[in-house]
């Protein structure tokens, strides 16, 4: 028994000291959990890469001050239970001071619960569902929110002349369902009739019944809150079946170069949403945006997407808090870091980042873009009302 | 009226698509008793092969098919032979081993093709019906004719040729077949070749109808398992009927009740049929 106690004390001392010395030497660990494999891997990898750029940039700028950030990257396999386990492991074993990353609410939600339980701040890169920030979790923040997506879609649709009938298709995820409900409610109040409203499982091979209904009920516009892969199948069928709609908008999954590459001329005229484009940054951040694109291209050999920028911005929020904590004596306790994050005022290529009392971003708003001649062109955004 | 005719065409092309996805799995399971959970990954491999050939060499469907078939036959033989050579082999063992192989293949695809979603872009030709109000695309025609052709070809093989009859005997009772002098390993080899051909046909079509992704293999595997359970071992024609039934159930449900009900209703249809079949089987055995 005594021997066990001695061993246990030695174990605690070793890990306690090693953690202290790591922080004392200025090595701060941050954990990133993203879907790097599985169905959501495409976007998870994009977020992960954006985070890596932010960490590289931070270490390069702050290396001389003796502060080095180490990124612990984990794959949640696009599964919520794995995401939870990875969060526990990063916090308890790797002793990370904060968590970042995450794509879709079903993966972000469980991590936010673990973060709260262990009093470690978590800044999610891509999450929308309102419920996630209504649970009074002082350790949960995110750089995106539902309003920032629904608002531009509604504004854009209401500016269409004589738009009377729309159809809404949405994925069965919590965020997509909430998006559909909010848009439907607001459009109905504004006198636009939602003639078809349906939920679809991701990965469905056939959308023809939905499209036939759109045709039969005279839908003029399709709002499709499904994911990238479903847009590929749905748009292809829509074009093939010659469904006579004026427009098609996908709040996520359409405004991607890789989407245009796969769909070729079938992508022409489609509308999408994005928070940032390589050539279209928030005013005053053009230089930072250009540098991000350059670093990204150099490291990964391709142009970053808006999703990568979400990863970059979420990492920058945490890094800014870490820098402040380091400057104020190097105490990296969860509550202190969460406080620093709450007071964040950051100008990023995606816009200004500040958090409200719930942890939602105050100023997040996406812009509506259209695919024209194989290029993504902004058509409705805050900075200029270039309506078309 | 036109709407319903169009719905009917969509149903049958979707059902044919499901049949093609399930055919390779059903053949391998019937002959070797291996539950190949890497089946979907092999379809995705054939799809990726067709995708690369289409992107790099601008090959069309008919040109890519022989290459996709050859690669599918070889890869299926490697997977199934590996499983068959395990010392302790039961259906459960095959399930675990092929699940592991599926995970390995998924990671190989991720490394080779990245996590990007890919489709084979094609310009379909359209054939108008009912005065131009209804159409059938070339891909839908391929799906229907290829599934009918594959099922018809297998039917003739099983009923009219000696080797096909030997294969059928192996499927029905491999111990009795062995006692009758039928070389089981050769029949298994034949089953693998036929299964590989079916996978090689399904893959390039999968990339035209759905999308390719390293983790996309799970969907065709599930469809294949459902249809094989529904049809039973070696009942190839029932497989086509099951595919069509599933296609009709899913499409009409999605049209009349909404897309959210399609899986529920098709699952219910299959459960009811399985219960009915079980009851009939019990009656016959009494």
Protein described:
The complex is a heterodimer of chains A (388) and B (286). Chain A has helices at residues 2-24, 41-62, 80-92, 105-118, 147-158, 174-189, 208-216, 228-240, 257-263, 286-300, 306-327, 334-342; strands at residues 27-34, 68-75, 98-103, 122-126, 140-142, 165-171, 193-200, 221-225, 247-250, 271-274, 346-348, 351-353, 367-372, 375-380. Chain A is α/β, with parallel strands linked by helices and 388 residues long. In chain A, the strands form three sheets. In chain A, strands 7-6-8-9-10-13-14 form a seven-stranded mixed sheet, sandwiched between helices. In chain A, strands 2-1-3-4-5 form a five-stranded parallel sheet, sandwiched between helices. In chain A, strands 11-12 form a two-stranded antiparallel sheet. In chain A, α2 (41-62) packs across α10 (286-300) and α5 (147-158) runs parallel beside α6. Chain A is globular and about 65 Å long. Chain B has eleven helices and two strands, in the order ααααββααααααα. Chain B has helices at 2-32, 39-57, 61-84, 91-113, 138-160, 162-172, 174-179, 184-209, 218-231, 236-256, 262-285; strands spanning 126-129, 134-137. A two-stranded antiparallel sheet of chain B has the order 1-2. Chain B is globular, with a radius of gyration of 19 Å. The mean pLDDT of chain B is 88. At the A-B interface, α2, β7, α7, α8 and α9 of A face α1, α4 and α10 of B.
């Amino acid at each position: 028994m005594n021997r066990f106690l001695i061993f246990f004390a030695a174990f605690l001392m070793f890990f306690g000291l090693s953690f202290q010395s790591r922080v004392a030497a200025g090595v701060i660990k941050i954990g990133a959990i993203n879907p790097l494999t599985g169905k959501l891997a495409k976007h998870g990898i994009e977020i992960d890469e954006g985070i890596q750029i932010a960490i590289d940039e931070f270490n390069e700028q702050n290396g001389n001050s003796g502060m080095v950030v180490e990124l612990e990257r984990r794959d949640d396999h696009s599964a919520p239970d794995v995401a939870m386990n990875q969060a526990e492991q990063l916090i308890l074993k790797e002793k990370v001071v904060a968590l970042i990353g995450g794509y879709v609410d079903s993966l972000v939600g469980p991590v936010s619960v673990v973060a709260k339980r262990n009093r470690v701040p978590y800044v999610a890169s891509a999450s929308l569902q309102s419920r996630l920030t209504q649970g009074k979790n002082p350790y949960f923040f995110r750089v995106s929110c539902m309003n920032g997506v629904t608002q531009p879609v509604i504004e854009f649709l209401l500016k269409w002349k004589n738009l009377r009938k729309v159809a809404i298709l949405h994925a069965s995820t919590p965020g997509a369902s909430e998006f559909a409900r909010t848009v439907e409610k607001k459009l109905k109040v504004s006198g636009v009739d939602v003639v078809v409203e349906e939920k679809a499982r991701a990965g469905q091979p056939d959308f023809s019944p939905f499209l036939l209904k759109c045709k039969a009920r005279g839908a003029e516009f399709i709002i499709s809150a499904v994911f990238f892969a479903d847009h590929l199948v749905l748009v292809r069928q829509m074009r093939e079946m010659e469904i006579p709609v004026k427009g098609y908008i996908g709040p996520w999954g359409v405004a991607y170069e890789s989407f245009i590459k796969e769909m070729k001329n079938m992508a022409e005229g489609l509308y999408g949403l994005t928070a940032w484009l390589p050539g279209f940054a928030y005013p005053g951040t053009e230089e930072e945006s250009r540098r991000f694109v350059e670093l990204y291209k150099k490291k990964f050999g391709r142009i970053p997407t808006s999703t990568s920028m979400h990863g970059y911005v979420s990492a920058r929020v945490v890094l800014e808090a870490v820098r402040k904590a380091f400057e104020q004596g190097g105490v990296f306790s969860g509550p202190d870091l969460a406080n620093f994050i709450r007071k964040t005022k950051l100008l990023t290529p995606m816009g200004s980042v500040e958090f409200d009392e719930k942890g939602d971003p105050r100023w997040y708003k996406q812009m509506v873009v259209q695919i024209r001649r194989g290029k993504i062109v902004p058509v409705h955004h805050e900075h200029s009302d270039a309506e078309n | 009226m036109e709407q319903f005719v169009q719905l009917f065409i969509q149903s049958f092309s979707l059902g044919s698509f499901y049949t093609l996805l399930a055919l390779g799995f059903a053949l391998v399971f019937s002959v070797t008793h291996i539950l190949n959970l890497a089946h979907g990954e092999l379809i995705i491999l054939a799809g990726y092969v067709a995708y690369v050939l289409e992107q790099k060499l601008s090959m069309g469907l008919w040109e890519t098919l022989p290459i996709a078939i050859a690669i599918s036959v070889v890869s299926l033989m490697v997977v199934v032979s590996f499983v068959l050579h395990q010392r302790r082999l039961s259906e459960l063992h095959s399930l675990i081993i092929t699940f592991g192989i599926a995970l390995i293949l998924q990671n190989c695809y991720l490394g080779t093709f990245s996590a990007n979603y890919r489709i084979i872009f094609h310009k379909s030709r359209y054939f108008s019906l009912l005065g131009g109000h209804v159409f059938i695309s070339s891909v839908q025609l391929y799906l229907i004719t290829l599934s009918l052709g594959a099922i018809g070809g297998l039917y003739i093989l099983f009923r009219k040729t000696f080797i096909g009859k030997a294969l059928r005997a192996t499927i029905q009772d491999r111990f009795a077949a062995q006692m009758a002098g039928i070389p089981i390993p050769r029949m298994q080899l034949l089953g693998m070749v036929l299964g590989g051909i079916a996978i090689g046909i399904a893959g390039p079509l999968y990339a035209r109808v759905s999308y390719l992704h390293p983790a996309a293999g799970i969907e065709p595997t599930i469809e294949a398992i459902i249809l094989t359970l529904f049809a039973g071992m070696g009942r190839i024609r029932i497989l086509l009927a099951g595919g069509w039934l599933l296609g009709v159930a899913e499409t009409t449900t999605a049209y009349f009740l909404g897309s959210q009900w399609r899986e529920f209703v098709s699952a219910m249809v299959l459960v009811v049929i399985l219960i009915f079949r079980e009851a009939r089987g019990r009656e016959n055995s009494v």
